[in-house]
Structure formats: structure tokens, C-alpha cells
Amino acid sequence: MIRINCPYCGERDHSEFSYGGDATINYPSLDASEKEWTEAIFFRKNIKGFQFETWHHSNGCRMWLVVERSTVTHEIKSVKPCHPNLQKVVENNK
Amino acid sequence: MTKFNAWNVIKNGLNGQSYWTRQWRDPEPKSIYDVVIIGGGLHGLATAYYLAKNHNIKNVAVLEKGWIGGGNAGRNTTIVRSNYMMPGNHEFYEHSLKLWENLSHELNYNVMFSQRAHVSLFHSPGAKDSVSRIYNIMRLHGTDAELWDLKTLKKKIPHLNYHNSRFPILGAAVQKRAGNARHDAVAWGYARAADTLGVDILQNYEVTGFTRKNGNIESIQTSRGIIKGKKIGFAVAGNTSVLWQMAELGNLPIESHKLQAFVSEAVKPLLDQVVVYGVGGAHFYISQSDKGSMVFGGDLDWYKSYAQRGNLPMVQDVAEAAMAIFPSLGRIRLLRHWAGVMDMTMDGSFFICKTPISNLYLNAGWNYGGFKASPASGWYFADLIANESPHNYVQNHNLERFEKGINIDERGAGPDPKLHG
After folding, report:
1. Does the distance separating the beta carbons of A44 and B254 come in below 8 Å?
2. What ipTM score was computed for the predicted complex, to two decimals?
3. Is the pTM of the predicted complex or chain greater than 0.80?
């Protein structure tokens, strides 16, 4: 079991969460070329090692999180709210 | 190479089994090969075999980082079927099934291919409609497919749970020519047959880098020295992205996920078919091996991973599915379970294609279904490498299909690799 330290709820089993995917994708502007959109939608780095990825606390607070996790050892380095403003709120409340 | 036949079995039986030769050599690498296949799994070995057999290209090496049969070749649930509907896929998998039917003779190695029928249960009228459509398309293309009503199903497999109120069993879509095989034997059979034709199987050669010259790959650095090949083929599903980035080719429409498989203690004959639960139900498949173990699996672990070990929530999930469909398994003990790392692609279909490097060829993206595809995968990958152009069946199984909008998405699940189960 992977344990994810949700900034809102505390440390929980990963079975409470749903895996989103690569958190580093930047979608291009709407009038960008087909090549750029294809790259953003279909192509992935597929990192072997630490990567930033999104998880949804679907059976908890239902907030989206950015998790830095190793795809080899499953060790987690950091967990943050997806939205940067919410990160500030979390820090202020500590 | 001592051939396996009745005469040799009797002869060696009388001689204390002392005259069998080893299955394949452990050769020193040659200075240069016509083709180097990276990845000594089923697909890599099959490719080497068909290069030698169909195209007379015998100066071939297969590089394997571990040992033959130690990767995904030994980490699957051994199911062979061809119930696909998308153009390209159904011809490809049907050809694969035809190759399976003769594989033991072809390789002179008993791969224990058993056409015991693949039974996909359906659990709602909508699921019945959907699977009927797929199985009708299969029939139109000459693949065997049939629907069993509840009465037939109960007669064939009486011990399923027919009282499940959440996912009632309404019948089954069946492919009778489908079944399973012994996975180790397939790896060993291809290795032995390829070796007999002159292919060098180089085990414990882990690729660590590439040297480029004039845009091409000139040589391959490995943990045991440099290997040179005029043409290079990748057949390393699970780790394709790693090699792809080693060759500085950027991103791929692939994510690596892990899928678990489970084997129970051996029991007396319990199940004659491969049973899938099901269409419009959970995701669970089970069969019984020749040794008597129940072999089964379910969904992948839902998060990206290169770790060859499974996580516990999926063990629970699979156990629940097993109990829902097969309550008689309740007290059976699990002998072992493991996870294999798979290339999950953006549309659930594979790649057999050329790459931006002119002497590099790609075989990847086998999702849940690499085992059954092995013979045809080797066949068409060898064809691509030898003839420099893809066969009609695999002409759209390339990396450009996403930009062109011709995704081959059997499930219609969209560009999320983990959903293509």
C-alpha cells in the first residue's frame, strides 16, 4: 500500500485516491498546431524514477493533489494541492 | 540439436537421458550482426526466429538483460484469443491464432497450446448487444465466434455463481479456438528454434547506451561490451520509453503500468475453459493450468509504475471478483502472485513500425495482450525489418496514427493508457 499524506486530511492509504496522470503536461493554446496538440494529448515522458503526477482524493476530501513519487520504488517526496493558491491557504493554516 | 520425437525419447530413455544436447548455445558475440533485436522476450525471440525462417536473415542477435523467459514472458496469464474487431487488429490476431495452432510442430517444442474455449460472460442486455456486435464482426472476417445462452452456459460451466444479483450472468460470448499455452515453453521453443537457425541469443546483456553516426545507430553499448548491428529492433515492452529516451528520441504515446497475475495451489480439474467476468461486469479472467493451479488476474494497479511487484488493493479486488463469480474458490490458497510491467498505449493498440532513426525499428505497446500476439508480432516485425515497409495488417500501427486521427481504440476509452484493459 502506498501512503499519501493529503494536505487536507492527513496520511491515508492510496486506495482512497484515484490516480490522475502526468502533472507536467502544459496544454497549448487553442489555435496551436495539430503537432503541438498531438504531443500534449498523446505523448508522455513515461519517467522511470521520480515524477510529478496528479491524484484525486476521491474517497476523501475530493481535492486534486500533485504528488512527487518514484515510479520504481513508489516512495513519495512531496504532496501538494494542485492549485497554487490552495497551497498558500494550506501553509497559512499550519 | 537433438530433435524431439518419439524415436529420440525412446533412445534416450534407454541411454539414461545422456544424449540430449543443450537447448541453445551461449555464444560469444560476433563483430557485427545484420539485425540486433533488443529484448529476449517472446516477441524478440519470435522476431529473430521469423527473420531466419521467413527471410533467410540468419546473422541475428537477440540481446536480453536478464535471462530468457524471465521478464513478461513468465509474468502473464497465458491466454490466447483473437476476439478483436478493429481493422488491422482482427486480421493480425487471427493470423497469430493460426500460428499458435501449429506452433508446437513449427518449433518442434510442445508449447501445450490448448484450445479450450474463451468464454466472456455478459451481465446486462446492453453488454450482450455490445459483445454480439464484436463477435458478429469477427464472424464476418472468418474468425470463429458464437454466443451461448444461459442454458448452454449452465450445462458447460455449472459451477459459476448464477445468483449474483448485482451482475447477473445472462450468457457468454465464446471463441472456441481460443485457449491458453505454457508460457515458458513458448520462450524456450522460440529460443531453441531460432538458435538452431543460427541466431545468437545473448543473455545478461543489458543495453546501457547507443552510439550514433550519420543519424543512424552505429553500435549498442551493453553491460558486457559493445554490440554492432546494421539494423536494430526494439522489443522491450514495459521499458520501451527508457530505451527510446536512451536513443534521444523524446516522448512516446506509452505509459508503463503493472498488471498482476495470480496462481493458486493445484486442485483437481475444475475449469475446462478460460472464463472472463466479464462484459458489463468486473474485470477478471481465470483458467486452470495443466498442473491444476488456478491462474487468474484482473485490472492493472491503476497508477504508473516500473516496479515488478503488485500492490494489495488489487489483490483484494481480484479476490472479490473471484468470489463473486466462482464462490467455490473461497478456500483455495494463493501460491504466488507477481506483476509485469506493460506498455499501456494511448489507444490500447500496439506499434510495429519504423522510427525517426532509419536503421531502428519499433515493436512495442502490447498493453494487456502481448502473450497471444507473440507469433504474429514476431512474424510482422521480422517482415518490417526485412522488407523495410509494413505489411497491410500493421500499416496503421505506427506512431503517426494519433496525429492523423486513426487511433485503433478497441474499447473507445480515449487517450488514457490505464483505461485500455
Report:
1. yes
2. 0.94
3. yes
